[in-house]
Amino acid sequence: MAKSIDVSDLNIYYGDFLAVEGVTIPIAAKSVTAFIGPSGCGKSSFLRSLNRMHEVIPGARVEGKIIIDGNDLYGAGTDPVAVRREIGMVFQRPNPFPTMSIYENVIAGMRLNAKRMKKSEADDAVEKSLRSANLWAEVEDRLRRPGSSLSGGQQQRLCIARAIAVEPQVLLMDEPCSALDPISTSAIEDLIHDLQHDYTIVIVTHNMQQAARVSETTAFFNLSAVGEPGRLVEYGSTTKIFSNPDNESTEAYISGRFG
Amino acid sequence: MASTLETQQPPAGAARSIHQRTLPRYAPAAAFGGCLVIGAVLTGFGLIGTVVLGTVIYLVVIYVLSRTVESSRKAADRVVTGLVTSAFVIALVPLVSVIYTVFSRGLPVLSATFFTSSMRNVVGEGGGVFHAIWGTVYITGMALVISVPIGILAAIYLVEYGRGWLPRQIRFLVDVMTGIPSIVAGLFAYALFVLIFGPGIRIGIGGAIALSVLMIPVVVRSTEEMLKLVPNELREAAYALGVPKWRTIVKVVLPTALAGIATGVTLSIARVIGETAPLLIILGITDSANFDPFSGRIATLPVFTYYEYIQPGVDGSGEGRAFGGALVLVLIVLVLNAVARLISYLFSPTKA
Questions:
Q1: Which residues constitute the domain of residue A217?
Q2: Residues linked to residue A26 through DSSP beta bridges, in sequence order
């Protein structure tokens, strides 16, 4: 069910400001791709453009092409809402719905879209998603408690369970571990390992060890100066980027000698 | 010179000491009590004179006392504490006075008859507010039914959809509407119904519309503030699940803000339920209960109170009924405030 993504010559604008320029990258199906780079280089903007989430910011727009399994993401007949059902997203800060219980949070994707489902179907979907998110054992006996009663790491795994409950093709993760402690981070990295058998995963991270641990492909973004647009400097297999990158600035960044 | 300076300087440790002489904790209270006694003697035991003069003497005494025993910083602190507390007490005086007067003069009037009878065929003793309570309840209820959908939908437009110049203009106009004198709202509703039904019209729905004019801006602004408090992350979380915008608003944003919206609506009712001027124009007054909002005069509590006071009847018993009506109105507003707190407690999303 996973899909590959082909991006060619993508520019991202906020109003008149060109934030990201000329990104061309293929993203393979059923793999983990990591985006690394300094703050403000457009990693998150680019990630959000992959499921048209950047459009919720007034004035934001893109030029260029993103093809997902032969369909143009920005084609005339493409419905952004339908796109987001296929391409799920996990955010930097855990954001469970505060008015809903753990159970309701997991099936929020279906409930909010008024999909009719039997009690048993819903129960199965909740258990399956929570098991996939490695959270089932911890919350099994308190599914009716509010989602906000969980710890930060558990909340983030709850958000991942919520994202995969709608069975998307692709899962985008925007620094999913930056607000978490090492133990929760490790739980989520294990989870990413398990999920890549079924999903295409794209993850933005500031933690280079994390990129090295979880991804097969790494893309390095950089910007030449503040106010200049961010660019994709290079991408390749994670082993290559971290051992023998082509570009000098990539090597400077990953070895910590940046700037 | 240098040597004298050195001898005058205390040892470094003492100068930087974190210990300081302080007045005992009971000192301010004791000083204030003493000053009240002095004030009482000087003014001949008048209540207001005692308190005012006592407070002034207290501020001087505590400053001198603190300055000599403690430090100038502490002295300033104690004087300002005294001033701030006085300001708070002065602000409370009218509130306490109104509540005391209304309860002391209104309570004796309250009885079962007072709540169950109208003023029909009553010229002296007796009679009640039955008709006025129902008038107030259903006129305000109709105003609520008109204002809440308009107010909440307008707030949703402002927060979720409005872009560019239009929401700015709407926000400005809503602010202007908040400041409209209530008599103008009454004249607006009256003029509207005169255009439809001709001069001299008295109609319940007109009162509801006049109150809505006053209520809508309050509902819009309070709802707007509550919707703004809903974190954008929740909206994005819903969008990322492929939820359309309108469903996100209905199922995520509104439930999250529900407690605040409900509180705002309840307080907006409390704001208009005591309005007299617009209802005086469009509803007038009547002695009988009128349950038809589409024809004829309707009595309401504020207008009832006004008329009982200016036309107390042959034996002057109307003044008592005026205070009774005012007390019922105060009680309704108190209950509404309690309801607002209860709602905000029950619907609050953080409640585990």
A1: 5-93+169-254
A2: A6
Q: Which class would CATH give B116-346?
A: mainly alpha
- Which of B235, B241, B350 is opposite residue A166, by nearest beta carbon? B241
Q: Give the separation between CA B219 and CA B178, rounded to whole angstroms.
A: 10
Q: What CA–CA distance (Å, rounded) separates A52 from A62?
A: 9
Under the banding of pLDDT at 50, 70 and 90, the label for residue B350 is low
Q: Taking a C-beta distance cutoff of 8 angstroms, is the pair B119, B135 a contact?
A: no
Q: What 3-state class would DSSP assign to A93?
A: coil
Task: Determine the Cα–Cα distance for residues B166 and B243; give it in Å rounded to an integer.
Answer: 27
Please report whether residue A119 resides in a domain: no
User: Considering the domain boundaries, does residue A118 fall inside one?
Assistant: no
Residue A45: inside a domain: yes
Looking at per-residue confidence, does B142 or A117 come out higher?
B142
Q: What is the CATH number of the domain that holds A244?
A: 3.40.50.300
Q: Count of CB contacts below 8 A, A vs B?
A: 82
Evaluate whether residue A83 is within a structural domain: yes
Decide: A7 and A66 in contact? Cβ < 8 Å: yes
* Residue that has been written with the tokens 């302080």 in this structure: B22
The answer on pLDDT for B2 being more than 60 is: no
DSSP helix/strand/coil, B125: coil
CA distances (Å), origin B135, targets A15, A68, B227, B296, B297: 55, 64, 33, 12, 10
Chain A residues touching residue B243 (CB < 8 angstroms): 81, 109, 112-113
Give mean pLDDT, residues A190-208. Answer: 89
Residues of chain B with CATH 1.10.3720.10: 116-346
Record the pTM.
0.82
Tell me the nearest-neighbour CA distance from B340 into chain A, angstroms: 19
Q: Closest partner residue to B240 among A84, A93, A145, by Cβ? A: A84
B236 vs A91, A114, A162: nearest CB: A91
pLDDT confidence band for B3 (50 / 70 / 90): very low
Does residue A135 register a pLDDT over 70? Answer: yes
- Domains: count for chain A: 1
Burial class (CB in 10 A: 0-12, 13-18, 19+), B113: exposed
The pLDDT confidence band at residue B4, using thresholds 50, 70 and 90, is very low
Q: Does A112 touch chain B (CB under 8 A)?
A: yes
Instruction: Tell me the two tokens of residue A157.
Output: 């795994």
Is residue A198's pLDDT more than 90?
A: no
pLDDT confidence bin for B5, thresholds 50/70/90: very low
Q: How far is A149 from chain B (nearest CA, A)?
A: 7
Report the alpha-carbon distance of residue A118 to residue A127 in Å, rounded. 14
